[in-house]
Design a protein that fits this description.
The protein is of the alpha+beta class. It has one domain. 30% of the residues lie in helices and 33% in strands. The chain has 2 helices and 3 strands; from the N terminus they run αβββα. A 3-stranded antiparallel sheet has the order 1-2-3. The two termini are 27 Å apart.
């Protein structure tokens, strides 16, 4: 996958692609898809979902691997 990523160009428009600080998440799945729902606290235990991301189980496994590698590199 890294070889494919090296050939990709990402374009981010900050006006259309906000960054959310989240303090909650929900992960759901079936045999084909994993869905990540990210939420912010509103009042007490109330959570407001601000973004949802779906990917194949293969993509989710690759994402988890890359996330672990990234965190290990920058962990203090």
């Amino acid at each position: 996958m890294q070889e494919e990523e090296d050939n990709l160009n990402f374009s981010i428009d900050p006006a259309k692609t906000p960054v959310y600080q989240v303090d909650g998440y929900l992960i759901s799945s079936n045999e084909h898809t994993v869905i990540f729902s990210f939420a912010q606290s509103v009042m007490g235990s109330q959570q407001h979902v601000v973004a949802r991301v779906a990917m194949s189980t293969k993509q989710a496994k690759e994402f988890l691997e890359k996330l672990n590698d990234h965190i290990e590199k920058f962990e203090v």
